[in-house]
Amino acid sequence: MKPKGNFQIKRLLLELVEDRRRLVADGEELFKKIEQIAQDIEQWIEERIQKEKLAIMDQLAKGIAHELRNNLAVIRASIYYLSQQKEAMNPSIKRHLEKLDRQSVLSDKIVTDLLDFSREQVPHVVQVNLNNLVEETLAQLEIPDPICVVRDLDPHLPSISVDPQQIQKVFLNLLSNAVQAMPLGGTLTVTTRKDQGSGAEGPGASEVVEISFKDTGVGIPPENLSRIFEPLFTTKARGIGLGLAISKLYVERHKGTIEAESRVNQGSTFTIKLPANQKKESTS
Asked: What gap in Å lies between CA 206 and CA 275, rounded to an integer?
């Protein structure tokens, strides 16, 4: 009887071990499900907060942008009038007028960003040479002397169908950010090239035009990098955090992508990819 009793004990022990293994496995599975539910709830809360922010911003833009723009127009007209009175103006007054003019320009940009983000703007596409658009945008920007601009533009880049105003605004936002990221100077490199997009099949399929803006500035901390395209997210003392959000919106309306890479104290690279063979759509 003793051997039979030992066998039963061993069998019970094995069953207990198996039950414990199943409990552990079930517990791990339950923990994963709880963790996923918690992540889903957190994401839902973030999306809800984001939607409420956007709704408030939309009401704000439509409610006050028109009035603000009228006021800014009066202020800028007055600044211009006073600046023409050169004989009666001393250097101190001139400096203050220049400060007022710069601040009015910044304020006007905030109003424009609010309006751009709140309204649907269907791209009015035409054939555009992006190298020329890059040069035109650089010509508009005041770049301090300590910053060296390097152009690596593909001379064989094909023209593509884009809305030049929207894409130029994207370029201007990225170039302005790059300049601001290098207060002590550095190198700003603009690169264009034609590339084969992911999932391409056959010759000429899924080809993209790639435009990158690389700076050697302060960089973006890892905790902020994943949020830089969120509306109203900013770490700057000025602005309301819409520049990159609008840039992403415009690029995606062109069926393109925009990505950012960055290292603190080493610099950032923003890369835009736009379809090279996208057909021109009617805007009527």
From this structure: 7
pLDDT tens-digit profile of 220-255?
999 999 899 987 778 776 666 788 988 998 999 999
pLDDT at 55 over 60: yes
**Which of 284, 180, 187, 283 minimizes the C-alpha distance to 236?**
180
What average pLDDT score do residues 130-135 get? Answer: 96
Residue for token pair 């439509």: 62
The per-residue pLDDT for range 190-209, each reduced to its tens digit, is 999 998 765 334 444 478 99
CA distance 189 to 180: 14
Task: Give the DSSP H or E segment for 70.
Answer: helix 2-83
Q: Per residue, what are the HEC states of 249-273?
A: HHHHHCCCEEEEEEECCCEEEEEEE
Cβ atoms of 121 and 246 within 8 Å: the answer is no
Identify the residue whose tokens are 């910044």.
Answer: 106
Token pair, residue 136, equals 């035109």
| DSSP code, position 238 | S
CATH number of 126-275: 3.30.565.10
Higher per-residue pLDDT: 202 or 61 = 61
Token digits of residue 70 = 């009228």
User: Which of 108, 153, 164, 107 has the alpha carbon at shortest distance from 131?
Assistant: 153
Q: Note the pLDDT of residue 44.
A: 72
Q: Where are the domains of the chain?
A: 1-119, 126-275
pTM over 0.90: no
Q: How far is CA 164 from the centre of its chain?
A: 18
List 147's β-bridge partners, or say none.
186
CB-based contacts of 219: which residues, under 8 Å, 6+ apart?
181, 262, 263, 264, 265, 266, 267, 268
